What we know:
Blueprint: H1 9-14, E1 23-27, H2 33-40, E2 44-49, H3 52-55, E3 63-66, E4 81-87, H4 95-100, E5 102-113, H5 134-138, E6 143-152, E7 157-165, H6 169-179
Amino acid sequence: MPGLAPPSDWLQRWTHLLPAGGRVLDVACGHGRHVRWLAERGWHVTAVDRDVQALAPLSAIAETVVADLEAGPWPLPGRRFDAVLVTNYLWRPLFPALRAALADGGVLIYETFARGQESYGRPSRPEFLLAPGELLAAASGLHVLAYEDGLLDGPTRRVQRIVAIAPPSGALALAGARHSGS
């Protein structure tokens, strides 16, 4: 689609972690710049957004799910993905659902605006800006591979971004047993 921004450099930097042909969930995907880029490279993408018109052209290359993530229930209960991608979107009540949507070994790739962004433009309301370290806290229990908190160019914006991997289910149970003295 003409006029779409290029894919996030953060996504491009970390896609080597995704299994070839794997299942990727793009949350609040908008017009689908990442959906298109991932689908062109062979990943099976599920695109979620509340904008029916934005999703319509994506239905030929991805599974599309129309859902208001802020007002309705999580639209994919029980579904798990090899990767969950979130860019330029923040709705804190979704953090547990995003974590639950990660398959064992699944990769969370998240990038959104942080406090300080109000000096550079929108969004500027505190409820849409991450507090210092908030994305790290939200990834608790995941294996964090990379985390950044700072300014990016083109356009100048203040962001936090993270890449984290969900441990295998057995590893969580084993870690809990070790910490409880078993």
